[in-house]
Write a structure and sequence with these properties.
Elements: H1 8-20, E1 30-39, E2 44-54, E3 60-69, H2 75-106, H3 110-114, H4 117-140, H5 159-187, H6 191-202, H7 204-229, H8 239-250, H9 256-262, H10 264-300, H11 305-321, H12 335-340, H13 350-355
Antiparallel strand pairs: 1-2, 2-3
Helix pairs in contact: 2-4, 4-5, 6-10, 7-8, 7-10, 9-10
Amino acid sequence: MIDVPLNAEIAANIFEELEANEWTGRETRVVFVSYYLYARNYDLFYQVLAILEQSAAGNVRPMVTYRPFPLTFDPVIFVCDVVILLYTVWYTYKFGYGLWWAHKWMGSALRFYLFDFWNLLDLVTGLANYAMFGLKMAIYLDSSAKDFKIDQVFYPELDQLATLFNLLTDIYSFVMFLALIKLIKFLNLSERVQVLSNTFLAAMWDVIFFLVMFFVVYFAFALMGMLMFGTVMIEFSSLFFSVETNSRMMLGEFFFDGTWDVNRISAVIYFFLYAFIVILFLLNVFIGIVCIHYCEQKGLCQISFEDEVHAMMHLMMKRLTKAPRFEGTIGHMPPSYWREHGEYTREVPSSELETR
């Protein structure tokens, strides 16, 4: 590993010495070049990692990754993190209280509470939040950021800090995705919106069996492309790159000119087979499966728009004026529980509830 300083003259001498000593040759398989940039408008540093990988066939594929990370302490973000942490602790308390309440009043039927989709979503959201705050503490306590000075000749290793910050960003996006999924539960108050969620549930098994067949055919085309064009084209040089290239072709980006230069007959056969089987046939079958189940669920929705608005307003007013049966829990019980254990449920008077 060679650490190049900021001095332009010293850096030029280092590169000249490397070139004179033939630092790279036929035996070289990969070269890593890592350096840091500073975006003043966003107050972020960027770790730029350029990878030059040489395949066994002699092709060189450059890959560049940018990983942003901050080095300054922002008090506004810190206050927001504290607020979110307090809300997460309160959320955990409410979820734990819901588990205790379900265990106290349901007994052996607690599995209906634990294995419900919305309750599992609450659990995963809470765990993701705690993982996010753990990474936040690791970033705040990282010593490499404190040792960094922009005017020094050699920079400290900031790879770990960049990795932690990008992992934190991924968890942020995952938590936001879960929060939006949770929003579907509240949108299901509308019967018209519930048609979409019912469509996904009704089409789930048909889509699963379709995806099995789809990925078998898709993998076959990826392997076929690697064997036909992998020795010349970088896009098909490995199975991973071939799968990536087939995904781009499925979205409309074709590489017909490159495959034509390799082998004209193979290029024509591969292009037309892929276009007919994957794009024209399999994708349209998937759309047809979803459309059939949507039409079935749409036919079951007979309520008018005015009646639906009136029913939603009545439900909201009922929720505001009357306490729910399971007070304090943010969990959700599936209708199957009440159908199977309905004989054990009844309205508990307030006096008996206080005694219990």
